[in-house]
Amino acid sequence: MNDAPSLVLSQLRDGILYVTINRAEKRNALSRATLAALRDVFADAAHDASLHAVVLSGAGDRCFAAGGDLREFDKLRSEADARALFDHAAATLDAIRAAPVPVVAALNGTALGGGAELAMACDYRLAAEHAAIGFVQATLAITTGFSGAADLFALLGASRAMRVLATAQVMAPRDACAMGLIDEVCDDGQPLDEVVARFVAPFLERPPLVMRAIKQLAGAHRRIAAQAMREAERDAFAATWVAPGHWARAQQFLARARPEGAGTGG
Predict the structure, then answer these.
(1) What share of the chain has pLDDT > 70, as a percent?
(2) Is residue 218 assigned to a domain?
(3) How many other CB atoms are there within 10 angstroms of residue 83's CB atom?
(4) Residue 87 and residue 134 in contact, taking contact as beta carbons nearer than 8 Å
(5) How confident is the model at residue 5 (pLDDT cuts 50, 70, 90)?
(6) In this predicted structure, what is the pLDDT of residue 164?
(7) Residue 225 maps to a domain
(8) Does the chain have fewer CB atoms within 10 Å around its N or its C terminus?
């Protein structure tokens, strides 16, 4: 009998599926098993005709997702390994993008690296006052490894997206909101759950069939950008992943991290 806690929790309440990454002790780092569990939850949700929306968040109040699990990914050294990791993560983000209803990322804390890419795969991003988002992959001398560049470029345009990736800054939620990365930020002392409930209320007012039809239009628009960039993004990630500069940065990061800490890869 396996008594290990589930990596991903899900609960259906009043037409909304609440999905939680359940690795608070690891800063909700995205291991391959966690990505697979997320993919399974979203694949199952696709068959629920009663859904109006999905809300994705992380356990605890520190991290939405601190990125890819670098302690696990450090063992992946070949270009083939890098491409397989990219495809594995991209399959999860594709399952989120393909959800038949709107998906809201409730950023309960920091979303870094692959965690930021995960948030971008959702249709909307709402942030707690203390949350932050950062495409910090360049600090590890790599590019996006979960297929999130397509979402970032589609939202910001090429020039601004390149600058976000190159500066690799961790942005406060209001700065990210001003840029368009985040849709709404909690006021001082305002619970994130309250903002989420207000944001999804219009979705609950429409029949599920209507919400699915609206999301179908959005999905068709999104697939054009994603399909055009996928091969180029995978190639760029694999090339930077196997370069010596990446391994040097990764080892520096792992040496600084606490034993229980996770990485910001992806």
Answers:
(1) 95
(2) no
(3) 16
(4) no
(5) confident
(6) 98
(7) no
(8) N
Whole-model pTM over 0.85 = yes
Kindly tell me if the per-residue pLDDT of 2 is higher than 60: no
> Given this model, what pLDDT does residue 124 score?
98
Integer Rg of the chain from CA: 17
The CA distances from residue 50 to 149, 223, 249, in Å, are 32, 24, 46
Question: What range defines the domain where residue 86 resides?
Answer: 8-207+234-256
Examine residue 219 and state whether it is found in any structural domain, yes or no. Answer: no
Q: pLDDT tens, 81-131?
A: 999 999 999 999 999 999 999 999 999 999 999 999 999 999 999 999 999
Residues 6+ apart with CB under 8 A from 169: 134, 136
Q: Which residues contact 127 (CB under 8 A, 6 or more apart)?
A: 107, 133, 173, 176, 177, 182, 184, 185, 186, 192
pLDDT computed for residue 27 by the predictor: 96
Contact 12, 46 (CB under 8 A): no
What are 196's two structure tokens? 């989420």
Residue 171 has phi, psi (to 5 degrees) of: -95, 135
Adjacent-strand bridge partners of 103: 54
- How many domains in the chain? 1
For residue 242, being part of any structural domain is answered with: yes
Q: What is the CATH number of the domain that holds 120?
A: 3.90.226.10
24 to 40, 62, 134, 145, 261: CA distances (angstroms): 20, 8, 19, 22, 10
Q: How many other C-beta atoms lie within 10 A of the C-beta of residue 145?
A: 29
Per-chain mean pLDDT for the chain: 94
Dihedral sign for Cα 53, 54, 57, 59, please. positive
Q: Give pLDDT, residue 221.
A: 86
pLDDT at position 226 is: 78
